[in-house]
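Hi all, long-time lurker, first post. I run a small reading group and we've been trying to get comfortable going from sequence to structure in the token notation. Rather than ask abstract questions, I figured I'd post a concrete chain and ask someone more experienced to write out its structure so we can walk through it together at our next meeting. Sequence below, copied exactly:
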Amino acid sequence: KAEFKIPRHIVQPGSVNPETITVNKALTYKDAQYQLLRNNTGSLDCILPAYKDGASFWVKSRSSSTHNIVVKDIDGNTIATHAAGQGVLCVSNVSAWWDVIKG
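-- Answer (accepted) --
Happy to help. Here is the structure in token form:
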């Protein structure tokens, strides 16, 4: 098959969520794909939604301190733990979430 060409840039309205969280955040597929989370209250979890083949979320810690954000799957398994400035691209298949890029 021929490749799919996009002649212009892609715009994704509503795809970025800069938010300060004070409790664990459970994502759904209605949430923005790019989560820029600030945590100033201790270690908090960002819980990914149920597995869906090809789904993805970027989660970045915008904390200015040592408070971690722990990214977990729906079953409570840790996908990534990151401190201030770190982020992760999480991609799902039908049975798991994977940390594809972390830094």
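A couple of things your group might point at:
The mean pLDDT is 94.
Residues 72 and 78 are 4 Å apart (CA to CA).
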